[in-house]
Amino acid sequence: MFDSITFNFTIGNFFCNSFFTNVDSGTRIFELYSNQTSESITCPHCGSRMHVYDNASVNLREIPFNSMYYTIFKVHVHRYRCTKCRASTTENIPFKYKETRITDNAAEFVKSLLMHRMSVKDVSLMTGINWNTISSIHKEFMKGELEQRREELRRSNYKPRYLAVDEFSIHKGHTYATCVMDLELGDVIWVGKGRAIKDFKKFFEAFPSEYFSDVEAVAMDMNASYNRLVEENMPHADIVYDRYHMQAQFGKDVLGVVRLDEAKAHNEQSKRIKESITPDKTFEEKQELKDAAKVESAQYKKLKNARWTLLSNSENLSAVKSGHLKEILNSHISLATCYAMKEEMCRLYECDDIEEAERGWKNWFTAAKESGIPALVHFAEIKEKRLPGLINHAKHQISTGKLEGFNNKIKVAKRIGYGYRNDDHFFTLIKFLSIPRAKNPSPRKK
Asked: H or E element: which one contains 150?
């Protein structure tokens, strides 16, 4: 049916009145011919008349007209030579996308597909356009949008006030990158490979020092390289240690350790009781020991399944889980102490009075070290060294939460692209995804 359709259209100085289908290559080819005359052309060098001395043809990929065949515009162009200086030139194709073998229309189509989360490979399979061409278009497009965004901010004399820095995984095998976000705008202003001091130092080298003159605070986790370089390069800015990293570490290194130790103690006690059931025991004694072993085993299972109950805020628990929590805490003093310390930590992070926060954190660390619980004591001894950054949260109510949320968008883009070999392209994509007008383009593996 498609072959029965007649085409007759013009594009600029070119017209098309025929096409043919190449079944072997799966292409439908439209022949476009130039109607430009030599009288309308002058030599770009000396301004003299030119004449047609040769003809050539260029194959350009166009948007497919259907799913069965790729579309090619076979464009026949004139080659001109000056009658005076003998300089030669080839007729310009106004609808050819620069430095590619595709049309402007196809380039815009490719951009729209990438903007709707298609991978470069999928776009290539759909359009028949070379993978490298699509990748180049995408990089060019993203860099243009990022430059436009930077120019907008430069014209408004914008400078960031609150920053967040965090790391994320880019490859398997513990390969990481560091990301810096402007918390007020949500723009990722820098991405670099690695998370060591020498890697993060490149962030400060990428911007003039006056760019950071208005920064009031930087949110981060307790990675030593972050705070050290911020103190050196932005001494006027306060360091704020992220509450979610702090609470997550407490949940893992304190609550998690104490819970598992208590569970292990119940399990070992259950085994010892079972081993004490010997043939010389009476029936009543055996039954009593079996019941005691069951109680210990039940306590073991209850503690093993209580991870999220202990980590959740008490006001978010259902009535049933609140009852389970109360039973656990009433029968495990160390765990109850650690849970109370967790709740107090959450309260301190809600405090907005810096003097109250300072008193509260000092009392918290004193109580933790006096608890006699090894995991809690060890945690307090390490974190107390970062006391100023914890107190600063009362002054600057910021965290890396927005950046953590953006990391999920990075993971989605990485998954759609099946990973990336070209870090520069991936980092450009990350920065592009963060600008307000971006709609999540997703290139294939680089």
From this structure: helix 131-155
